[in-house]
Every structure is written in structure tokens, then in C-alpha cells.
Amino acid sequence: MITRHSLELALPGASIGAVAGAVAGGLTLFAGAPTGMAALSALALAVPLALFGGLYGVLLGHRVFRPGTFGPVGLYWMVAFPVSRLVQETLYGVGTADGVLPFLAYQAMVSLGFAIGFVWMHERLMPHWLIRRADDNPLAADLLAVYLRYARMIQARKGARK
Amino acid sequence: MDTSNTPPATATPPVEDGRVWKAGRLEPMPIRKLPDAPPSVHLLGPTVFLVALGVGMGESYMWPRLVLLFGPEIRWLFLVGVTLQAVVMLEMARYAMATGESIFTGAARVFKPLMWFFFIVAIAVYIWPGHLSAGAAALEQITGIPWMITAIAGLLLVGVVFTLAKVIYNLLENVLSLLIGALVLGTAIVAAMVGQWSDVVSTITGMFAIGYLPDEAMTAAWFPVIVGACAFAGPSGMQQMWYTLHLRDSGAGMGAHIPKVRGLRHAGEEEEMPNRGFMFDTEDPAEMAKWKGWRRWVTFDALLLFWGVTMLVTISFTVIAQSASRLNPGVREALLADDQEAALTAMSDAVSSAGSSVLGVVFLGFIALIGLNATLGLFDSFSRGQADMSFNFVPGAKKIGMSKLYAIFLWAVIAFGILILLFGPADGPASILDTLAFLSTFAMGAYCVTLLLVNNRMLPKPIRPRWWSNAIIGFGAVFYLGMLFYSMVAFGVVVG
Question: Where are the transmembrane segments (chain A) (predicted)?
């Protein structure tokens, strides 16, 4: 049961990761790459990104990360994103032209951008998912309470309007 | 603090203790409580608008173009431009959060004609639908639907959405957030796939080649282009001024005491809009502590969201352009000829033909997305700004109400846009964008001067800007106006 509760929290992050990977690959297909190759390449990026995205949600539920803060998420993706890209390039890519280290260094740089986009989207989606799951899932209810506390502060400010 | 016990001229809303802050010749601001700042550093704020507006053709086209032509060293000017804009953003926020007034009202407190100047510049610069046509042209490349149809449909859609929205700010923040999230995620992935370490190294080292200007850059053909690109680094033209309206509508700082703008359909539910802002008690240490919290909140927004996202998108697009020109020398030629459509198409083709995982369509998709973001943001901001100035300073406009004024300006700019698209100067999107650059740049120099006057004369001493902040804004005024006039005097050309 505990595992299921944790896993439920993974859904928004996993979806963002999967969609980000798959959309990129899917559009490659549209651009005229051979179908099978494009699909496999998309899958090879979407799966690791989804796994890491989901793991972020689980860790958030266990308070390893705090909602809405950027620093730790940036560090997390600085490792996770280059690994995901390495998996993709190793399986279905053209290979790393510069060698593995410069490749990883470059991906680590870009990952900060990915992290901003990820946490941005996650902050938008997670509260809606938590509201749906809070009744059956104590972990979700706890995390929702954190978001609600913040929302109440905002509400209190707006309520002060004359 | 210079407060007095004279009650304000109007009785609504009721004043808590009768004290007011006198700023300029307009009605004094009643003293109210400053609300608490958000508890933690939180990612989502009104900066979304500034990012949506700022990440435009400057980042996706003009700067990649300059880098290919002059080498990555030219990017130090971009670093200067965006960093300057981050400081401008903080100073715009200072006035808006301290008073709940827009910077336009601040300008009117200093000298009313200054505000009318911005009113006229906004109309001259922003009624042209150029920003929309660039994105729609990219969409035509993907779908085959003629760009004019997409552009007109987009205009109508924007109008309908903003008319039906109950509270415009919330809707726009949600939509833009998702669009920008998609843009940032997608750009990162595309850049991750097409770029190399060496591109980033050259792009980043180029940013610190401070003072570098190749001989060609100092010619009549290229200097104006560089001036234009500097002005387009980050939010350009009046976008920073509009940011003060978004801050107010999001309830940041004293903006919490001002009601929100609603869509026309819900205009009847509108609360009464006060005709001046409010001030907090800057001699109360508890209030000043809250003020510091607000400053931290907006500083985080300025650095991470605004500076970070703008840098990321530009670096990514530059990397994409560099890989494209390696693959297809035609890209460089198209850029040199300033054929924007040809250059974007060539970049997209090069990106597609790179083989395995590369994404020409995605590239064009992002250009379209940037166009859409800019349209949503610009139309809303323009109407908001003009409605704010009309409401406060055109006699009789208060009877119409803020939300109706907003709708009038919105539909006027949409109608004009459609007419121009159908019958106007049809030389293509790029030429429209170029003609805006002069007034845009001039307005930016002018708002730096306005900011210095407003923040140093209209705010109580304890919350005025520090000397270094004034120095940077002063440098901004010299930077924008100096380059603009140097270009005119030395080369006889305005910006390109």
C-alpha cells in the first residue's frame, strides 16, 4: 500500500518527462525520419525522463525536495538529464561525436534549462493531481496541505483587498 | 516620512487612519498595511508575462544572426542588455509594489506630458501586427495553411478569450505558464540533441569578451542592426512598463489593495477602481520587514525566471543556429541577406537533415509558439496599459469603467491588425518588425529616465533605490539613447 501511495505521486512528473521526450521524438517523425527509428529514439529518451520525473514526485512526497524551490531540482536534473540523453544516444543515436565527457558536460548545461521547464510545469500540474488523490492517499494529503498553506497565504492577501 | 493628516480628496475607499503620502501633484496616497510577502521563494509569478513577452524574435532570430555573422564574441552586448533589463525589472517592481500604481501613473505624478508621451508611443509601436505574422509564417511552413488565415484567426481568438475571461490575469497566467513551460522544456531538448559542447563554450566565453566590436560592426550597414538587437535583448519597448500592471493585478505588494481587471462579459461585477494607489508606513520596522520580503521575492523572479530563461532560450537558439550553419552554408547567406523567412526555413531544414533525432518541425513550431506567446501577451498588455492611462487621466473615462476601456482598446487593436493584414503594407512580416525598432529603443531610454525620476522623487526615502541601482539605470538611459543617436548622427540611419 505504501508503495502504491508513493507511486501515485510520481504520475505528474513521469507524464511531463514522458511527454517531453516523446513529443520531441514524435515530431522528428513528422519531419521525415524513418518511422521505426524515430519511434525508438523517442522512446529511448521518454522512458528515462519519465522515470526520473516520476522519482522527483516520489521524493517530493517524502519531503526530500520542497515544492516550488529551484536549486535542488536543478542539481537533480543536472545528473538525471545527461544520463537520460546518454541512454538515448547509446541505444539509438548517432553516437557522441566529441567523446563522452564533453557530451555529458554539454547535456548537464542544457539540463538546467530542462529543470526550469520541468519544475514550472510540475508546479502547475501537481496540485490538481493531489486534490484528486488526497482522500485515499495520506502522502498526497500531506503534500496537498503544504500547497494549501501557500494558497491560503495568497488568498489572505487577496482577501485584504478593499 | 512626509505624511500629513489631511484626508484625501475622495472618501472611497475609507481611510484607515487618515495619514497620506504626498507624491507629485496628483492625489495623495492613503497609508495602508503592506500585505505579507509569499512565505517561500515560489516559482510562479507575474514574471511569466515578462518572460513570455521578452523571449521573442530578438532571442530566436536577431541574436543567433549576429553570432553567425560576427562570431560569438558579440554576445557580450547581449549579456549587458539582459542584465540591464533585470535591474530595470527590479526598479519597475519597486514603484509598483510600493504604491499599487502603474509606472504610467508614477510618470504622471512627475510630469503629466511624460505619461502622454508613452501613451502615444504605445499606439505608434504596438498596433502593428508584425509580431504575429512572424509566428504565423512559421506555422505556414509546418501546416501549409496560409499565414494570413492563421494570423487573423489568432487575432480573433485572442479577442474572444480575453472578452469572456472572468478575471483576465488568472487565465493569462495559466495559459502563458503552460506555453512557456512547453517552450522551455522543448527548447532544452532540441538544444540537447543538436548542439555540442564547443558551441556552448564559444557562446559563453563570447559573453565575456567585453568591449569586442569587429570593424564591420561599426559600419552604416551593421551598427543600426546591433543597436536594434541590443534593444531586443529581453523585454523590449514598453514591455517592462506593462509589467507594473501585471504586478498590480497579481496583488503583489500594495497591488493587493487594487481590484482586478475583468473581461467585458463580466465587467458588470467589477469592483470600484480607486483613482490612486496606496503607500505603507515606511517608518514602521514591521512594515519594512515585510517590504524586504517582497523585494526578495521579486529579486528571485528577476534572476532565475527572467534572466535565466531568457539566457537559456537565446543560448539554445544560438547553438541551433550554429549547428545549422555547419550543416548548411545557405543559412549563413540567408542571414547575411536579412531574409528572415529564408533564414528560419534554412535553419529548420538544416536541423531536419542532420539525420537521426533532429527536429526541423519542432524548431518552426517554437517560432510559432513564440509568436503566439508574444501576441497573447502584447495585446493584453497594450490594452491594459492604454486602459489604465485613459481611466486615470482622460476626463469622463471613469464612467466607462476599467474593464470596458480594456475591451475597447483590445478590439480596436485587433480590428486594426486585421485591416493591416488584409490591406496594409504587405511586404512581409520582417519589414514590419524592423520599423518598430526605433521608437521601441527610444521608449526604453525614456523609461530609464522616468524610472530615475519616479523612484527617487515619488517614493519615501527609506524605500528609494540604492546609488548603484540608480547608476545602472542611468547607464541604461545612456546606453539606449546614446547608441540610438550615435547611429543616427554617425551613419544617418536609425536602428535596423
Answer: 9-31, 37-58, 70-88, 100-121
